[in-house]
Amino acid sequence: xxxxxxxxxxxxxxxxxxxxxxxxxxxxxxxxxxxxxxxxxxxxxxxxxxxxxxxxxxxxxxxxxxxxxxxxxxxxxxxxxxxxxxxxxxxxxxxxxxxxxxxxxxxxxxxxxxxxxxxxxxxxxxxxxxxxxxxxxxxxxxxxxxxxxxxxxxxxxxxxxxxxxxxxxxxxxxxxxxxxxxxxxxxxxxxxxxxxxxxxxxxxxxxxxxxxxxxxxxxxxxxxxxxxxxxxxxxx
Length: 236
Prior knowledge:
Helices cover 46% and strands 11% of the residues.
């Protein structure tokens, strides 16, 4: 791997959930929107299943259909159709599509971490920006498409991060070599391990939720995206 220097970085790739916004909060709100739809259309399901029971059923459903493990949007919609069919609703597929639409719309309503917009504006002057996510956020719907050239979603690939295919595809699409890309993310395995193994430079956003247990050190460790802006501004 080439010696790391910010001056060699042509592209910065960002993880999205838990790097630019709180992914857990977003999913909680999206599931709440989904349950509000169900309260209007499938109240007896909510009467019979707690949120925990429904979550466990969804997990069991995906385990029984392992090909859906990485297809998070499709998996949720198919599970809803299965659930509505089990409770004898007419046209469960159409209902699942409508219910999932409520979830998906709410899922795009993100609250960016403080300083993210200004940081992306500044970083875009230093390098090209792309996004690589295991989630199903849409950069246009979340309002970030003006900053990123493109976003790769793992559900469009056979395997998610940390598998190398999505990272390699990003490099090919951007037309650069691995050492010319700095990947920024919060997850030591999905983001840092995956990027490191194909030769990307790594920037770990250390938010205190996970310990570092890898046998290598990230090139940069930050606690906010704003810190990365400062580092680029100070680089020769």
